[in-house]
Design brief:
Order of helices and strands: HHHHHHEEEEEEEEHEEHHHH
Radius of gyration: 21 Å
Helix content: 40-55%
Number of domains: 3
Shape: globular
CATH topology of the largest domain: Butyryl-CoA Dehydrogenase, subunit A, domain 3
CATH class of the largest domain: Mainly Alpha
CATH superfamily of the largest domain: Butyryl-CoA Dehydrogenase, subunit A, domain 3
Strand order of the largest sheet: 1-4-5-8
Largest sheet: 4 strands, mixed
Structural class: alpha+beta
Distance between the termini: 38 Å
Number of strands: 10
């Protein structure tokens, strides 16, 4: 389908697909097997100048928005969902600064991110605070011109590799969720340490670690917005970043569809290519519809967010949920089409299925997303009465 992309958006799409085809695809299985962070591919991202597609031009970026980020994430994820997270998870860590940072904060941090010199990460999840983000225990106590940060964040994407962390911590526990605040934390700050690299089912080329803060002294200038704004920062960040997760799922699903179509031409049974069998044809047709519907919803949601529309939580949750559910279905069907061969790791489809699963879980499980969608629908219905 023609989504009427601008010339610059088409350039981003074509460049990222070229990187995915030529640089990521040939090494994806190796990185997956070793669970190694792809720093050599990150350098390619930087050289291609794609790290700042969603960052304003005055801070060294290309001046795009959520749509440009989604286009890039989709194509890079076509190559490998894990490797693409070096780019996409940096976007998640950067959006709090884009949305709530002051000029000094933006000038200090955004140019290096846009240039690909530094990666970012977002730290909110804890052992007892996953879907219940209000349960975080990490604290930031004001002490003169600084805040003292203590606590442990869990399952942080880009953890240990990123140089810049946006962290949600409690500054006034008596206020509940309204007592949370957001901070920018540099990796080299004394008191910042990291847990072991997690051994994961999928996205194995991406680093996932605990981020530990022990009497970590943060300058008050690193507070994003004001005290008590932490959960608003987090929720507005997710509104902008969830289309990126959706695009990651879309890229994985598109790759699975492409591989399944190609294999259906090559694999012969009963003296015919299996692409001639109606059962296979129906599966491919359903896969294609889910992929294209996901793309249409993601691009529409991204354009809505970039337009400055208010109350975008519903459409952001919709595109993330629909695309990630579709990716899981499409990759599972691709595995079925490949049959017994796909259990051998020389074929990429089993990896696509493993990589797809996490998109239904992180940045809010799809069950949480359905709650967000339903809540918005109910509020809209009441407003019309």
């Amino acid at each position: 389908m023609d989504y009427l992309l601008t010339e610059e958006q088409q350039m981003i799409r074509d460049l990222c697909r070229q990187i995915a085809e030529e640089k990521i695809k040939p090494v994806a299985a190796e990185y997956d097997e070793r669970g190694e962070f792809p720093w050599d591919i990150v350098k390619i991202f930087a050289e291609a100048d794609i790290c700042g597609v969603y960052i304003p031009e005055e801070y060294g970026g290309m001046g795009g928005g959520v749509l440009e980020m989604a286009i890039a994430a989709e194509e890079l994820s076509w190559g490998c969902g894990g490797i693409s997270l070096a780019f996409a998870a940096t976007g998640l860590g950067t959006y709090p600064i884009l949305l709530y940072g002051n000029d000094a904060q933006k000038s200090k941090y955004l140019p290096d991110i846009a240039a690909g010199k530094k990666l970012a990460a977002f730290a909110i999840t804890e052992a007892e605070a996953g879907s219940d983000a209000g349960g975080i225990k990490t604290t930031a106590q004001k002490n003169g011109d600084h805040y003292i940060l203590n606590g442990t964040k869990q399952w942080i994407t880009n953890g240990g590799e990123a140089e810049i962390y946006t962290v949600i911590a409690m500054t006034d526990r008596s206020k509940g969720p309204r007592g949370a605040s957001a901070f920018i934390v540099d990796k080299n700050t004394p008191g910042v340490s990291f847990g072991k690299k997690e051994n994961k089912l999928g996205i194995r080329a991406s680093a996932t670690r605990e981020v530990i803060f022990t009497d970590c002294k943060i300058p008050k200038e690193n507070l994003l917005g004001r005290e008590g704004l932490g959960f608003i920062v987090a929720m507005k960040t997710f509104d902008h970043s969830r289309p990126g997760v959706a695009a990651q799922a879309l890229g994985i699903a598109q790759r699975a569809l492409d591989e399944a179509v190609k294999y259906s031409h090559e694999r012969r049974q009963f003296n015919s290519a299996i692409s001639s069998f109606q059962g296979i044809q129906f599966m491919l047709a359903d896969m294609a519809m889910q992929v294209e519907a996901s793309r249409a919803l993601i691009y529409s949601a991204a354009r809505m967010i970039d337009s400055g529309a208010k109350n975008v939580a519903k459409v952001s949750a919709m595109c993330k949920t629909f695309a990630s559910d579709a990716a899981m279905k499409v990759t599972t069907d691709a595995v079925q089409i490949f049959g017994g061969y796909v259990y051998m790791k020389e074929y990429p489809v089993e990896k696509l299925m493993r990589d797809a699963k996490i998109t239904q879980i992180y940045e809010g499980t799809n069950q949480i997303q359905r709650g967000v969608i339903a809540s918005a629908l109910i509020k809209e219905g009441l407003a019309k009465k």
